Request: fold
Amino acid sequence: MPSLLESARSMVTRGSDLGTRIEALEVAIRAARGRLDESVVAEAEEFVDRAAARLRLSADHTVVAIAGATGSGKSSTFNALTGLELSAVGVRRPTTSWATACVWGSEGATELLEWLGIPPRHQTTRDSMLDAHLDRGKGNPDKEMEGVVLLDLPDHDSTEVGHHLEVDRLVALADLLIWVLDPQKYADAAVHDRYLAPFATHAGVMVIVLNHIDTVPEDRRDAMLDDVRRLLADDGLADVPVFATSARHGDGIAELRAEISRRVADKRSTRLRLEADLRAVAARLNEECGTGKPRSLAKQRVEALEDALADAAGVPTVVAAIERSTRLRAGQATGWPLVAWLGRLRPDPLKRLHLDLGAAGRQLTSRSRTSVPEATPVQRAKVDSEVRELADDVSAGMTPPWADAVRRASVSRLPEVTDRLDLAIAETDLGVARLPVWAGIVRVVQWLLILTAIVGGIWSVAMAASGTLGSSAVPKVAGISLPLVLLLGGVGAGVLVALVCRLLVAATARSRARSADRRLREAVEQVSAELVVAPVAAELDAFRTVRNALTTALR
Reply:
């Protein structure tokens, strides 16, 4: 079984997509909050709340508000429509700021009247026991007005501030607005500038009444009505119907009553009012948002920012240190073993930067930061410039509020960048802790060559001492005695291996530097993505959400 709210909403929005459009506006409000003008967002949010409340209430009743200036005959028109003396007129007008309500068909109207804020003492039910007594046996003469909640509002030009507030409040809540004008003051700017022109989008839920028509000579009435219509056209309300009435004599009241009955019968006034309000607030939010197309972050801009951050973080310095450190370490591992220990006296570039301490080393030295040189003013300025250009690029074509929101987001976490970059570099596996596999093999070969040379040398010395070095008893290789072959071959091969190792060390150093550069830049990319790109992307997503939602709301 559908809920009462769903039933009410279905009755009001049947045959339209009003519910979907209101939900879209709500989505736009959530995404625009904190980014666009708060007063415009608050106005839209107020409408959503008001629409939700109205949809929860009776869909069988139409709230018709009669508004006008002092002396326009507004209350007389109200009394003429109800057939009762409910509102005081003329000099007997009350000073209260409350409106008066008359209801045709009271079932389900109680909550609606509470929502309208009409005190019980200012409420009258037209089909009350009094009517039942007067109309006994005659049926209900007001059947065509069934479902009308007629409101007589305070004078909108009253000197009482409370009257203005009450009029503004109820004008925003009414489903149908009837503005009563006086022949002597129908061009008054107070009503046109404050109420009629601002409601140019609400022509479908508005009726104009020119009262006291009996005081106008008959030959001037048509011209006056034409002038009223001209003024309404200037207000953007050319399609609003105009009725000439005399509440005192009843002229035109039947036609006005028929118009109200017709609009109440088709059950469209509530929906039309909500649609008009929706268009108005969505249009204001749309104007604040702008109609620029959502943009995406350019890959070139992001890469330029990452390059600037990498330079500021000292990535080139670290990469150069890695290459030198690899040369030093691999050279120590593959250099001539008898003199390789001298290389340990040279300082390791990575240890100078506190990039090779490891977890235990940092714990011992109480260091959690690297010693990479701080960014220079030029490098910091480059980062600021790239961040600004990235924000300006994606906000091009946006309205100032959105452009400001994107810029704020781009620098919102910039103060964290320095520490996060330093931490990212410190935690990056630079791939230099382990020696290459071939270094161990070279070391074994070198010791074998050393042993070969030593054996050959000792053997040669021994044979030279015994005078048998050139005898035929000594083994020979290609005519050269084996001891000399071992001595010279060991030394010569050792020199050759050393030369080859220098080439391998250089290649390994360059390879590890490139690999470390890639890993460090990936770490920088993550920091850039989290602290700069993600906040900007969130603003762009919010902009897309608002634009798409407003497109739906305004369709």
Q: What stands out?
A: Residues 1-59+268-289 form one domain.
